[in-house]
Amino acid sequence: MKTASECSQVTVEEQSSPSQHLPERLENRSAGSKHKKNTRKTRNQSISPATSPASSSHQDKTQSAQQTSARFTSDQSTQTEASQLQSVQTQSTQTPPIQDIHTPSTDCKSTQTIQSSFSLQQAYWGRSFTEQSADEQKTQSSHLTLICWNIDGLDPDNVFERAKGLLSHLGKYRADVVLLQELVPVSWKILKNIMKDYQFLQGSEDGYFTGILLRKDRVQFLQSNIVKYPTTEMGRNLLIAHASFLGHPLCIMTSHLESCKASSQERLNQLRRVWKWMKEAPQDHTVIFGGDTNLRDWEVKKLGGLPDGISDVWLMLGEPEESRYTWDTSINDNNEIPNSIRLRFDRLFLRAAAEGAKLQPESMTLIGLEKLKCDYFISDHWGILCTFIFGASEEQCVTD
């Protein structure tokens, strides 16, 4: 495991070879030091690169998350978004229907509050079931649908438009299980305020964290727990939920594994721990893990490949090229990386139940590939939309 000072040394070395280790250099930046699209966008004022090369530490990222609200108010172009987001946060405990809201004041601010809240509500609830395609209507059937997405909550730019875009996607598919990484308190409160039809579980309350969302009318939540990674320097952990889907017991897991090339060994330690918990889950449970693993293929090979009984869902589906790269700077320019870098950071693992019906992946699609009106993508990661279906049990196949 590398210390913070060792991570600093690696970062300095990588700067001397800008094209060779660019993905790791991106990971080494805190959100506040991301390059901005100053030449092509109507964006916030320029944010200077971080002066400390060790900006990948959990402390720096936590501070970045805590300072997001302050940055909203410091930039003139984000003041509107700040007030909109604040109005959403204050409604987290009680949200009357929009048409029932009455305010004594008729000034622009109160009107804007209602309009912005309605805008977020409409983004999520705007599409009726009759407007959905046949594929989307599978969410109402025996298919289990799952979304996994690092939503880049540490980036403070265009937060309101990106939140609307995220809610639009989540409302469109209404997946049975949603696994999110890099949540921050602002984005968490927005989602909880709007998505009343989901059970929310969070991996932490500070800085940035992971979350599991379970659709209440489809998935019965039973219990959850958090597994700490004992040697993490970035506050990472494993969030686990036990649930039932159409009578089938499920164990759902998500994590955001350690970032940085220098943290490869710690990342692999965490991956071993994930696999251990997957293998030790109750044998009658189907186990699904999804998250931002930050993995390179050579790291999995270093561990000897996947352990027996655990499968990579993308590999199970025949390695579809169109859903290979979940972090792709050849298309996604949120970070203005000058080189085209394509990596499969976000992955799904599956461990079938030892008895009963077997869950099999049916399709995998990347989502969030369209730019928003603000000329920004929802996240620097693509989201993964995966569909599963329960097949006949081995006992049934033998009987038939």
Notable traits:
single chain, 400 residues, alpha+beta, Deoxyribonuclease I, Chain A, six-stranded mixed β-sheet, disordered C terminus, metal-binding, nuclease
N- and C-termini, Cα separation: 53 Å
Helix content: 25-40%
What is the assigned CATH homologous superfamily? Answer: Endonuclease/exonuclease/phosphatase
Q: What is the arithmetic mean of pLDDT?
A: 78
Strand content: 15-25%
Q: What form results from the Cα inertia axes?
A: globular
What are the segments in which pLDDT stays under 50 over at least 5 consecutive residues? 1-36, 38-57, 68-107, 395-400
Q: How would you summarize what this structure contains?
A:
This protein has helices at residues 4-15, 22-27, 58-66, 68-74, 79-89, 108-125, 159-173, 185-194, 264-280, 297-302, 313-316, 394-399; strands at residues 144-150, 177-183, 198-202, 209-215, 219-228, 237-245, 248-256, 286-292, 311-312, 327-328, 342-343, 346-351, 359-367, 383-390. The N and C termini lie far apart (53 Å).
Structure commentary:
- This protein is of the alpha+beta class and 400 residues long.
- The protein has a single domain (109-390), classed as Endonuclease/exonuclease/phosphatase (Deoxyribonuclease I, Chain A), CATH 3.60.10.
- The chain contains 12 helices and 14 strands.
- The strands form 3 sheets. Strands 3-4-2-1-14-13 form a 6-stranded mixed β-sheet. Strands 5-6-7-8-12-9 form a 6-stranded mixed β-sheet.
- α5 packs across α6, α5 packs across α8 and α6 runs parallel beside α7.
- The longest helix is centred in the first third of the chain and has 18 residues, at 108-125.
- It is found in: Nucleus, PML body.
- Its cofactor is Mg(2+); Mn(2+).
- Residues 32-43 have a biased composition (Basic residues).
